[in-house]
């Protein structure tokens, strides 16, 4: 019976609680405004490819198994990629926190305290008068000081009338998606950087081979000119010039060997390991470029490129933040219900008659000194505009990089064809100069010039070959390839 009576006594509290919960169902969610779209060109440099190489898996684009293994190793061991994964975990944790804000917080409470009421206070007079009543027994008499014991549950619940908490959850989820795109961006950049360094290594190997071949030819030239000096056909100046050329080539060899070491160490750092030799496949001269390279359409670039997708998610989250900042100016409804055992005597705390429950609902709205809310709203609007410009910049950068890489592939291909002819011609000229010098029809300076020209042209040819592959890698990265 005491429980039934207690329930009747709190019927008004129950009615208020049900009314406030019902009010929470009538929500006016503030929908974030959308930013204007960014116009895109119809095609890349008048090309209408339907599918670009960005949709290819890296094993389909890169035929060198050594390169593929290096990329696979980097994707499992690279420290930057591991940090990107942890950023995703942070964003996921923030999303869980935002979900919890929609639910009531319930705390188990065991509390004890006391109050000593003054003789001339409302509670003091009331308690004194109550103790004189014949309707109460000794257990109900109120002592002074008055203890207060509570054992039960207390809760606090903000009702999301305006969709503020839901929008916060939505913004947190959108940033979680943005962090996943950030991880994809690291994968794309990592794949491209490993390929760039690998092809740079192959190019340096090619330069080293060319230098060593020319060094052998120059040593024979020094031997020959020494014989001619002994025969009185040339002066010591010729010997000095040929020897100086040989020394210059040897110094060039030392610089290339150091560049190889530095490039290998950079690549090992990406692979998450200490310096060690890097295994290579075919030479760069034997590496094959795709017969045709397609880029797709700019609309596909927006769909695939991780930095653009990340910027788009960040823009969406920033717009949601503006709606949240607007909702901060509106009244917030908070419920604080409780249920438990409450008594001013420890001996009666566990008595069923000590059951107490209640709920308080209140609306609170900012009235004075709203500078904090105004400043927060202004900052949210500015961040939203900044996010839009960042999104716009990401698209402009992406389109520009694709066009540059496409043009690079086209231009370097024609340069390579011309340089092949140039190297063949200069080799013939070097042979001719040697024959003429032996027969006395050319000076030693002409021979030195011819040999140096061959070396420079061969090194330039290797560099052009490297530039072709780097343009291919840059195009693959610019199109958002490599992260799937």
TrEMBL record:
Q: What is its main location?
A: membrane
Q: Where in the cell is it found?
A: Cell membrane
Q: Spell out the SUPFAM superfamilies in the cross-references.
A: Outer membrane efflux proteins (OEP)
The superkingdom of the source organism is Bacteria
UniProt keywords, alphabetically: Lipoprotein, Membrane, Palmitate, Transmembrane, Transmembrane beta strand
User: How is it placed in the membrane, per its record?
Assistant: Lipid-anchor
Annotated NCBIfam families: outer_NodT
PANTHER family, A to Z:
OUTER MEMBRANE CATION EFFLUX PROTEIN, OUTER MEMBRANE PROTEIN-RELATED
Can you tell me which family this protein belongs to? Belongs to the outer membrane factor (OMF) (TC 1.B.17) family.
Q: What is the protein named?
A: TolC family protein
